[in-house]
Structure formats: structure tokens, C-alpha cells
């Protein structure tokens, strides 16, 4: 029961995050969906570190948190720069790199 | 007494897990980004409570400080700066395809989670170590001995991210605009 519940909750949150990343047009909300997916993976790591009685999963979750923090900082900086140059926040409109 | 305690423990885990799933639904369904951010904070607090219930006290504290504190404050600042405009959500073909893809992914993950679990998982630690798992001391000892290289690499990653953001913010804007217009 216990480990299966962790798997199901984590899979639900991950899939909801993936859906949010695909259906939303605001880059900020897309970033929040990305955070949801990372959080789902963290939850799975910590749940299994509890069931396997090992600390490696918690260390991994710590590393994932570091990566997420760095990624959010860089991503929000990029969003801010895009907004300063183009004054709009719709991912469909941002296509300057398109060939 | 033991049975009642175990039942309460399991019920708390299930209720908080369902709340986390509902909060994550709120993140992607709210039109206004500020509500999405608030729902995301709710989701992170629920996950921190689950970490506490799974005896990962240190990670729960880090989750609250780093995620629900620092990262979400950053998000709220950016929303306040850019103006959280409501987003029109219309149905389109791409949206239907996205829902179909996510549903398929969820079905596959569910299948992988429920089918094939024939053997109960076993711990590799002895019961004496079980008591201290999750505390700051145990995590610190493991982090500085067995996982020293990932720890140092994480610090380098944070340094690189800091330098990158400073470069992004200090970049002269006129040059970008000129190259966009030409």
C-alpha cells in the first residue's frame, strides 16, 4: 500500500505538471509546471528513501532542489530580459529564433 | 493503540497526498498567474508535510525554506513586476493532443506502479540507524563523506547560475533591440 501510494501520487503530480507545461501560454505558469514535475520526482525519491531505509534518496532530492533553484533563477532572468525587449509574455509570439 | 496510531498515520498521508494533487490541479487550471503561484505554495507545503511524515525532517525544512520561501518569493516578485494578466484559455486541437498525451503518460505510469510489484521492498539499514535517518546530522555525515563530489558540483552550479543571471541583467538592451529591428 505505502510504496504504491507514493508512486501514484508522484505520477499524478508529474502528469499534471506535464499537462500544464503543454497547455499554458504564460512562461511563468510554464515554469511553475516545471517546478511541479521536479517536486513530484523529489517526493518519489524521499518516499523510497523511507521505504528502503537509505539516505541516498534524500541526498539526491537535495541535489534536485539545488538544480531547481539555479534553473528558476536563470529562467526568470531570461523571461525578464524577453519582457524588457518585446513587452509581451506569450510563448506563441516569441519566435525570433525561428529559421 | 499501535493499530490506531498506524491508521491515523496512513490516513494523514493519504489526505495530504490528495490535497497535494488537488493543489497541483489548481496550478495549471487557474487563469491568473498569481493564483497559480499561491496554489503552488500550497502544493509545496503539502509535500513538506509528507516529507515530515516519511521521517525526512531535514529535507522538509529545506523544502519550506528554499522552495516555499525563496523560489516562490522570486516568482511573486516577477509576477508583480510583469503584471499578472489573465490568460485566455480556449480549446484547440493542440490542447486536445496535449491532454491525450498527458492521459496516456499517466496511464502508463499507473500501470507501471500497480503491476509487477510482487516482492516487498526491504531496507538495507539496521534498526539502530533507522532512528537517526532524516535528521540533519545523518544527512550531513553522508553528504560530506559519500556524496562529497555532487555537493561540490552543486555549489559550482549555483555559482555559474549567479554569474549567468548577472550577465543577463547587465547586458546592454539597446544592442538587442537594434539587432531585432534590423
Question: Can you give a write-up of this model?
Answer:
The complex is a heterodimer of chains A (99) and B (182). Chain A is mainly α and 99 residues long. Chain A contains 3 helices and no strands. Chain A has helices at residues 2-23, 27-51, 56-86. The longest helix of chain A has 31 residues, at 56-86. Chain B is mostly helical and 182 residues long. Helix content of chain B is 80%, strand content 0%. Chain B contains 8 helices and no strands. Chain B has helices at 2-29, 33-53, 57-82, 93-114, 127-132, 136-145, 148-170, 173-181. Chain B is extended, with a radius of gyration of 22 Å. In chain B, 22% of the residues are buried. The model of chain B has no long low-confidence stretch (mean pLDDT 84). At the A-B interface, α1, α2 and α3 of A face α1, α2, α3, α4 and α6 of B.
List the helices and strands and how they pair.
The complex is a heterodimer of chains A (99) and B (182).
Chain A: H1 2-23, H2 27-51, H3 56-86
Chain B: H1 2-29, H2 33-53, H3 57-82, H4 93-114, H5 127-132, H6 136-145, H7 148-170, H8 173-181
Helix pairs in contact in B: 1-2, 2-3
Short description:
Chain A is an all-alpha fold.
List keywords for this structure.
heterodimer; A: 99 residues; mainly alpha; 3 helices; B: 8 helices; extended
Strand content of chain A: under 5%
> Structural class from helices and strands of chain B?
mainly alpha
- Amino-to-carboxy terminus distance of chain B: 76 Å
Assembly annotation:
heterodimer
Characterize the main sheet of chain B.
none
Shape of chain B: extended
What's the number of extended β-strand segments of chain A?
0
> In angstroms, what is the radius of gyration of chain B?
22 Å
Q: Roughly what fraction of the amino acids of chain B lie in strands?
A: under 5%
Note the gap between the termini of chain A: 51 Å
**C-alpha geometry of chain A:** elongated
Helix content of chain B: over 70%
Helix/strand structural class of chain A: mainly alpha
The residue-averaged pLDDT of chain B reads 84
> What kind of sheet is the major sheet of chain A?
none
Report the total helices of chain B: 8
Give the count of helical stretches of chain A: 3
Amino acid at each position: 500500500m505505502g510504496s504504491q501510494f507514493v508512486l501514484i501520487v508522484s505520477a499524478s503530480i508529474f502528469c499534471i505538471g506535464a499537462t500544464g507545461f503543454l497547455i499554458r501560454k504564460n512562461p511563468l505558469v510554464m515554469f511553475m509546471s516545471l517546478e511541479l514535475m521536479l517536486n513530484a520526482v523529489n517526493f518519489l525519491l524521499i518516499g523510497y528513501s523511507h521505504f528502503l531505509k537509505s539516505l541516498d534518496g534524500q541526498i539526491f532530492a537535495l541535489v534536485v532542489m539545488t538544480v531547481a533553484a539555479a534553473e528558476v533563477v536563470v529562467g526568470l532572468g531570461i523571461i525578464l530580459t524577453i519582457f524588457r525587449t518585446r513587452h509581451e509574455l506569450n510563448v506563441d509570439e516569441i519566435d525570433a529564433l525561428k529559421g | 493503540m499501535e493499530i490506531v496510531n498506524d491508521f491515523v498515520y496512513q490516513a494523514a498521508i493519504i489526505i495530504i497526498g490528495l490535497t497535494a494533487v488537488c493543489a497541483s490541479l489548481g496550478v495549471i487550471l487557474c487563469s491568473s498567474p498569481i493564483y497559480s503561484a499561491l496554489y503552488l505554495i500550497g502544493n509545496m507545503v503539502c509535500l513538506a508535510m509528507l516529507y515530515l511524515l516519511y521521517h525526512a525532517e531535514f529535507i522538509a525544512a529545506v523544502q519550506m525554506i528554499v522552495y516555499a520561501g525563496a523560489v516562490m518569493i522570486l516568482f511573486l516578485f516577477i509576477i508583480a513586476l510583469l503584471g499578472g494578466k489573465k490568460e485566455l484559455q480556449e480549446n484547440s486541437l493542440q490542447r486536445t493532443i496535449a491532454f491525450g498525451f498527458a492521459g496516456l503518460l499517466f496511464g502508463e505510469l499507473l500501470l507501471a506502479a500497480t503491476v509487477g510489484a510482487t516482492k516487498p521492498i526491504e531496507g538495507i539499514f539496521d534498526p539502530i540507524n533507522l532512528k537517526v535517518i532524516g535528521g540533519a546530522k545523518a544527512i550531513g555525515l553522508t553528504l560530506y563523506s559519500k556524496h562529497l563530489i555532487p555537493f561540490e558540483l552543486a555549489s559550482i552550479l549555483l555559482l555559474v547560475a549567479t554569474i549567468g543571471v548577472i550577465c543577463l541583467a547587465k547586458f546592454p538592451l539597446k544592442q538587442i533591440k537594434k539587432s531585432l529591428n534590423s
